[in-house]
Amino acid sequence: MIKPHGAEELSPLFVYDTEKHHALNAEAETLPSLLVSSAAAANAVMLGAGYFTPLKGYMNLADSLAVAKDLCTTDGLFWPVPIVNLTKDAQGITAGQRIALRDPNVDGNPVLAIMDVDAVEVVSAEQIDFMAENIFGTLDDKHPGVQTFKAQGNTMLSGPIQVLNFSYFQADFPDTFRTAVEIRNEIAERGWEKVVAFQTRNPMHRAHEELCRMAMEDLGTDGILIHMLLGQLKPGDIPAHVRDASIRKMVEVYFPKNTVMITGYGFDMLYAGPREAVLHALFRQNCGCTHLIVGRDHAGVGDYYGGFDAQTIFDEKVPAGAMDIEIYRADHTAYSKKLDKVVMMRDAPDHSKEDFVLLSGTKVREMLGNGIAPPPEFSRPEVAKILMEYYQIEDAKA
Predict the structure, then answer these.
(1) I want to staple 204 with a disulfide (CB 3.0 to 4.6 A). Which of 142, 168, 208, 251 is the partner?
(2) Superfamily holding 16-163
(3) For the ATP-sulfurylase PUA-like domain, which residue ranges apply (predicted)?
(4) Residue 225's pLDDT is what?
């Protein structure tokens, strides 16, 4: 199987040893506490689950600035996005302390991890802006990722962590949340060697379904990992439980058995476009995938990124050999009325816009809210039914 990034084997930071786990939970009750941001909590979950191998904890300021600028830590590890614990409230916390990190997303704020604080650094407004602009390609406060990043605070705590739980992800998504360790194990059990990953924060329409098939056929893979984000999203995005139900229905009805793994990971969406696409590739390699589908405006939002910026970053900013995973470059996919099937638009040069079934997100939302299923060329009826029920309940609340 493909090796993890920068390591011979995965290094999950979750404490699996039961005795040690109990002892750390008891110790946590005696330690100073910090209620972390949702972003820092999501980083802890990803570190705990092995997705961020080979990192041992949160980055310090020098590494964060180096990663933002050059996609590389100060000691030469390729990494696309700073993995940080920024806070507004570090009063009384000093380097050399052990502290308990508490979860902002679960009632009662249970201990998420114990941290050995190596450094407590004040980050200047200029440094915050420098990181934000490099990560997101903009400083526009309307960008949801920029908003979230800049709202966390300007004190950076760095150091190794020991993770004690996976926040709300295991409880809320018991059938879907998986660690990188669990995904690797299942890939091995299935006997898959070549695996392509599909990243999603949305329900999958017909074009996404066919794109997965195209990638599997073109690459000759043994299977596909449909890997959905389960964490925080911007307002208006479809919640994870609805997306999960619709994807499961689509796979159950339209894919052959033992060709798809439906899983999810506990991370908040960054909406960082190209940089996030590279992060997506890196942690899919840690899952054991050999390929990642990168389509138009992968991980984008609004008009902040060019249609193929998330593909060209792999040519322009990812050094040769930095990662072993490869990307499958996809164009916009849509149903061709001429050919009576879903195609990539680049493969249909003789088509005009009118030859495709194209619907805007707003139009689809309107139809679903009114109990009208989009055409079957756009959305499978079984998927449309789940989405219609969700939108009709939402509209009734409004």
Answers:
(1) 208
(2) Sulfate adenylyltransferase (3.10.400.10)
(3) 2-165
(4) 98
